[in-house]
Structure formats: structure tokens, C-alpha cells
Amino acid sequence: MYEGVVQDVIDELGQLPGIGPKSAQRIAFHLLAADPADVRRLVNALTELKEKVQFCRTCFNVAQSELCRICVDPRRDQTSICVVEESKDVVAIERTREFRGRYHVLGGAINPIGGVGPDDLHIRELIARLADGAVTEIILATDPNTEGEVTASYLARQIAPMGLTVTRLASGLPMGGDLEWADEVTLGRAFEGRRIVNA
Amino acid sequence: MYEGVVQDVIDELGQLPGIGPKSAQRIAFHLLAADPADVRRLVNALTELKEKVQFCRTCFNVAQSELCRICVDPRRDQTSICVVEESKDVVAIERTREFRGRYHVLGGAINPIGGVGPDDLHIRELIARLADGAVTEIILATDPNTEGEVTASYLARQIAPMGLTVTRLASGLPMGGDLEWADEVTLGRAFEGRRIVNA
Questions:
Q1: Where are the zinc fingers (C4-type) (chains A, B) (predicted)?
Q2: I need a labelling partner for B195 at 20 to 30 A (CA). Which of A116, A146, B64, B156 fits?
Q3: Average pLDDT of every residue of chain B
Q4: Both B99 and B133 in a single domain?
């Protein structure tokens, strides 16, 4: 509907996740009216994203050099690895400040319908990291959904023979929520995982 | 939270209208995993947007040369001008195929609270376009809200002495809607503008 470039921008923005044609149009006109320096900063950031960002050779987290900043940090505990699906999950866990070990980013979860099998994930590299015996605990922090659960079970079976402690993040009621609004699977898990309260 | 460039992209995307930090993160990771050619197309489109797009010298619609494609089209009726706030409105009206004249894009609406007065809009240029007497009808198609109504009244007063026909788009119930859900202002306007039905 628009002339050349304006329509190109709307089409390209409309390909991004969560941006429909109306939002794409709104953003295009926002950029048209914006300070050229602001648009240049956005363009540069997008260009550098593909040029400079790589994946850590050890844990496959996003990194700006061969290793990510967590893998190169000597203060991180070398005895535990937290296994997650994506780099986003690393950020979420870092925000809690609960974990001082290192990570392993699988790059997804096992999903036979979507055509993702164990060989499509960085599982072989995880097993290789455990070979020297320095790691004593593996925390399986894949998503609490079907694919994440299947992936966690698969990994637990693979790692079991190596004699490490393998744990899974607790499932239960989210903090700050209302019990009556919890879905039955979550509430069921909360019952299953109930703990003795010390008086 | 992320390393350098990834965080830069999230920050820059988060500045765009309608994109919060979560969507910005989702888009950044989508682009990280995307085909480099797709990202290059987006980057090029954004770069060209600021380099190539200008505003029509006559009507201030977005254009890829000095004049927009509507102003240069000899088949468009030279006797009527439809006055709108933004280029987006031109596209919306073009989609109806109801109007064959030309446009004038004001670049906004009068809004004293927001600090937008008549001199901040392309009103002087509109008056200049009417000087040679070729235009016989002005259709005021500013938005049906307070600012749009104020702007339409202002323009009507300015244009009245020139002896042109000045019209305003009809207000009333939106097609496909339910009468009971119409707000009272819309329903009031629909009564005010009621028309005789020929049996």
C-alpha cells in the first residue's frame, strides 16, 4: 500500500515475532519521524548482532569472544553445571543470584513432532564436559513443559552411569500467585513435592 | 543483563513503540538465530527508510521523490483535496477506493496541551494550494476525536472566505458493530446525522 521503501520496512518488521502489520506500520512511521541518529544506532546494533555475537565454545551461551563471560570467570564454581534450553534462561537464572556454577545451553529441547532429536542439541558436548570428573552436580533446568521434561529425563538417563548428583528444579505454585487460579498440573506437582515444615 | 551487543539490540528495540523489554528480547534472539540474509534485508530497509524517503513537496505525504505518486498521477481529480493528519490516513482512505482526488497531509492535529498549534502543521501550504481556484471541494478527514474536531473547525473557518465547498466525513455507528456497544458520543452523532430512508 505504501511507496517502495516504507512498504519494505513494514514487510520486514512484520516478519519479526510478535509484530503484526499494524505494529509494523506504527514502528515504520515512528522511525520516519525519529532522529536519524536513533535509527543509525538501531541499524548499527542489528548489524553488529550478526557480526560480533557468537556462541561460547564450552557452554553455547551467547558470547562476544570464543568463551562467554561466565565460562571465563574464575570465581564461578567449577563443580556444578546448570543445563538450560536457551541463553534467555541463563539470564533468568543469573537474575536470581541463586546459582554460582556454570551453564550448558542445549539450544532447544527434544521435540519429536518438531523434528528435534537429541543429536540436534548440544548433548554430546555436555557429556564431554563431564569426562574429567571435575563436575559433581548437574542441575536440569529445562522448561517445565512436555519437551523440557522429556529432555530432562533423557539427560538424567545419559548422565546416571557417571555417578554425578543430578537434580531438577522444583515444580510447584508460583510465588505471589493465588492457589485457586493454579492449573491442575501445577497444583498436582505442588502436592507431590510438599515438604515438612519445621515448627 | 546480556553481553554487549545483544543488550544493545534489546535496548534499541525496546525504544520502539509497542515493544516492551520481553518482546525486544524475543526479537533479538529470533534475529540471532535467523538467516543472516534476512537480517541484512531488515537492516537495508531501515537504512534506506531514512536515506530515500522524503515528504511530497505539494501534499506532505511520504514520497520517494520530490512529489508523491498520487500528486504526479494525472488521472487524479484536481478539483478536490482530502485533508488528513498523517500519511497512514492516506493509505486507509485509498483502500476504500471512494476518493479520486488528491490529499493534503497536515502532519498532526491542533493540540494546545501537547504544544501543537496551527503553525506547526502544513496549513499555510494548504491555503496556498487553494489560491489558483482549481480546487472546488475540501474534505476534512481529520480524526473523529477532540484534536481532529478542533483542527477541522479551525480549517473550516480559514477556508470559508474562499467560497469552496468544505465537507467533513460522516460520524456514526461503525459498520459491523452492535448498537448496544456503541459509546454515547458515537450514538449521539449517529442520531444527529440520521438520514431519510427512501422506501
A1: 56-71
A2: B156
A3: 90
A4: yes
Judging contacts by C-beta atoms under 8 Å, the chain B residues touching residue A13 are: 42
Residues A134 and A122 in one domain: yes
The verdict on A23 and A101 lying in the same domain is no
Domain with residue A109: its CATH number is: 3.40.1360.10
Sign, CA torsion B48/B49/B50/B51: positive
In A, which residues are within 8 Å of B90 by CB distance? none
| Rounded (10°) CA dihedral A107, A110, A111, A117 | 90
Contacts of A68 in chain B (CB under 8 A): 3
Rounding to the nearest 10 degrees, give the CA dihedral for residues A57, A63, A66, A68.
Answer: -70
A134 and A108 in a common domain? yes
Q: Are residues B80 and B138 in the same domain?
A: yes
CB A112 within 8 A of CB A118: no
User: Closest residue of B to A40, CA-based?
Assistant: B47
pTM to 2 decimal places: 0.72
| Residues in chain A closer than 8 A to B32 (CB atoms) | 49-50, 53, 62
pLDDT(A75) > 90 = yes
Residue of A nearest to B86 (CA): A29
pLDDT at B154: 95
What stretches in chain B show pLDDT beneath 50?
none
CA angle B113, B114, B117 (to 5 degrees): 90
CATH of the domain at B25: 1.10.8.420
Backbone angle region of B163, left / alpha / beta, with phi > 0 → left and psi within -120 to 50 → alpha: left
Domain that holds residue B79: 72-168
Same domain, A103 and A177: no
For residues B93 and B164, membership in a common domain is answered with yes
Q: What is the pLDDT of residue B173?
A: 78
From the list B30, B39, B50, which residue is nearest A17 (CB)? B30
Q: Which residue has the higher pLDDT, A147 or A181?
A: A147
CB pairs under 8 A between A and B: 143
Using CA coordinates, name the residue in chain B closest to A86. Answer: B29
Looking at the fold, whether A43 and A121 belong to one and the same domain comes out as no
**Each residue's pLDDT tens digit, B34-64:** 898 999 999 999 999 988 888 999 999 999 8
> What distance in Å separates the CA atoms of residue A129 and residue A118, rounded to the nearest whole number?
17
**What is the distance in angstroms between the Cα of A199 and the nearest Cα belonging to chain B?**
39
Interval A107-124 mean pLDDT: 95
> How many domains in chain A?
3
Interface touch A62/B3, C-beta < 8 Å: yes
